[in-house]
Amino acid sequence: MAMSTGGGSSVSGVNAEINVTPMADIMLVLLIIFMITTPLLQEGVQINKPKSINANEAPELDLEGVTTVTVTRDQLIFVNDQPVHVDELVDKIEENRAKAPELPLFVRGDVAAPYGKIVEVVNNARDAGYERIGMVVDRVDESGRRRGQ
């Protein structure tokens, strides 16, 4: 609202111009927010994956119904981002395998997780009936720069 005074008399007038924030500014702010938050939502359990130069692509990893077992540096085990006790691991893996028997199982192990714990998870997956088991790593080129997974 603007006030206009003219000629000594105080006359108040209403400014009819609308002050609207441009839609482009709003969209840019939303885009930045989504760009920041999306990577944080993609992986449920945060781990530091080992790096590999000669890792193969695994398109099955993004399919719905695929089973992933995550081992953290604290030796906690997660099946599809749900915490699982070691004694229940085979039953939980078998339950997920029954839903999608044609898909492989993927093991995501933290680089600081004990090697024996990863082997134990792979053995449990074999006991649950999985024959195709993949290890999830960060792919790097020869210079050590990250290329994907």
Q: What percentage of residues falls in helices of 4 or more residues? A: 25-40%
**Biggest sheet descriptor:** 5 strands, mixed
Shape: elongated
- Work out the number of β strands: 10
* Strand order in the largest sheet: 6-5-4-7-8
The H-and-E topology, N to C, reads as EEHEEEEHEHEEE
CATH fold node name of the largest domain: Nucleotidyltransferase, domain 5
Mean pLDDT across all amino acids: 81
Salient structural properties:
149 residues, alpha/beta, Nucleotidyltransferase, domain 5, five-stranded mixed sheet, 10 strands
Structure description:
It is a single chain. With 149 residues, the protein is α/β, with parallel strands linked by helices. The protein has two domains: 4-42, no CATH class; 51-148, Nucleotidyltransferase, domain 5 (2-Layer Sandwich). Helices cover 30% and strands 22% of the residues. It has three helices and ten strands, in the order ββαββββαβαβββ. It has helices spanning 23-42, 89-99, 115-127; strands spanning 4-6, 9-11, 51-52, 67-71, 77-79, 82-84, 105-109, 133-135, 138-140, 146-148. The protein has a five-stranded mixed sheet, covered by helices on one side. β1 and β2 (9-11) form a beta hairpin. α2 packs across α3 (115-127). The longest helix has 20 residues, at 23-42. The protein is elongated. The N and C termini lie far apart (57 Å).
